[in-house]
What does this fold into?
Amino acid sequence: MKRTLSLLLLSALSLAAAQKVATPIAIGIAVAQTSNASLFGQEQVIGAKLAEKFLNARGGVGGTPIKLVFQDTSGDEAGAINAFQNLISKDNVVGIVGPTLSQQAFSADPIADRAKVPVIGPSNTAKGIPQIGAYISRVSAPVTAIAPNALKQALKINPKLKKVAVLYAQNDAFSTSETGIFQQTAKDLDLNIATVQKFQTTDNDFTTQVTAVLGENVDLVIISGLANDSGNLIKQLRQLGYKGLIVGGNGLNSSSMFPICGQYCDGVIVAQAYSPTQSSAANQLFAREYKAQYKKDPPQFAAQAYTGVQVFVDALKVLDRKKKIADWDLGELRVALNKQILIGKYKTPLGELSFDKDGDIVQQAFYVAQIKMKDAKNGTFVFLK
Ligand code: ILE
It folds into this structure.
């Protein structure tokens, strides 16, 4: 009896160990499709789906199509952990593009790392993300590479800038990371930080912070937060009379914020890791496809999510030439795929990219844009020189 049981157990184990890769090849997308973080997540879903359509139309992986499996992370850690667990153990994906927020990545990524499942972060920009583990990389350039560009641009617009106020969401890992870079850069540029104000990503009323900022007579306000909170903060700053420049961080880099701050979004300066005018053939194709479908330029979060899927497909293609993906053992493929991702070079809508030894993106060019509102709901990011 005992013997039969252990034999059964053994064969179950070896079955699990010998699990083949399913076709179409399943790639997990774990982004926020609900909650306030879906303001970013919606753009990521669009970008990922465009990649699936586009890359499958061009033969997928050596003739085998890919299939994206979506698991909604919602906006918190528990949601991201749950999505990752489902993708890893139930959907048997070869790897994961996700999650949306750095705050979620610090909780969910270690689970994939322990399971030896490659993760490509599509939008996590806090310091320390690729260092979570060997299986974690990202196509979203870190705050260290992005944030300083916005401040330099603000100084170009107004070289007389001297006194600044800094505000950040203290309950969000990305926002606290980004504000550190903003504050350091401000000091390096000889700006005088008159006040530092904290808020929560769940806040709606910013009277206290705005009053403190107005009391300092600053000529630049620097905000690190997510879309809903930052949108309301900008609106209240303007409504209560602030007239100077505003620099927003990566959490303000979505047109989903426009209906929240409305006309008050106008003029906000936001650094970009993607430009629709980037001249590579890969971007021309992506931007054309996106524009044909959505009648506007592709946003950064869509371009990065597209790039995440593309990196998986390009790396899979290399492995497929050695041995057809369907013949791989899933566990072995995940390990080999992670290695391949890290050594590859990719021609993407973000330009040509590769990864450093930690899995952080090595990207060539960055940009800065300024929001231009047409009316209370619609606007664009105008790229600056
Ligand atoms: N870049 C931020 C983060 O890493 C947000 C992502 C804005 C959508 O959390």
About this structure: The chain has twelve helices and 15 strands. Confidence is low (pLDDT under 50) at residues 10-15.
